[in-house]
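Batch job 17 of 40 flagged for manual review because the log was empty.
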Amino acid sequence: MHIALAGNIGAGKTTLTKLLAKHFKFEPHFEVVDDNPYLEDFYKDMLRWSFHLQVYFLNTRFRQILEIRKTGKNIIQDRTIYEDRFIFAENLHEMGLMSKRDFDNYTSLFDLMELLVTPPDLLIYLRASIPTLVDQIHKRGREYEKSINIEYLSKLNEKYENWIKNYDKGDLLIINMDELDIVNNEEDLGKVIDLVDARIHGLF
């Protein structure tokens, strides 16, 4: 079984991936952040580095999906390849931070990769408001994320909502993170686990 978590920057994907993997004894697959050679440059100059960053993410995510398919194990994945295309790359293009030429090139590459991609059995979307996202981003204190502005996060949230509204590639579970503290409140984590457990048993 392949479960994937989707959500904006700071929504809690990595944290919940770890907690669900531990509970269900799934193998976690995380987004490559700390080793990303473009991320810091991107937040300093989005126009200059947007295409490079998105191609890097697309490449690593595609490679990750191929590896997931090979393992034959129960996997829980932090972020999907669809978000790279329909949220981040599209948003950068619309904000004028990725040229049409680069976006068309990127989209062509994604379309080719998608032919070989199997969607997750269950997609868990972590919905979060801007105050929640900002609070989480500040708490984790990544230096390169300090320059992320509210407008950028807001546009991403709009993209996420539009994408989720039309998502039809498999089972979907939406969790409102504004109302939960999965790190410090065991009852809140238990609620999420129960929701996921119900979906997993419905898929088997």
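Reviewer: the log was empty due to a logging misconfiguration, but the result itself is present. The chain has a mean pLDDT of 90. Unflagging and moving on to job 18.
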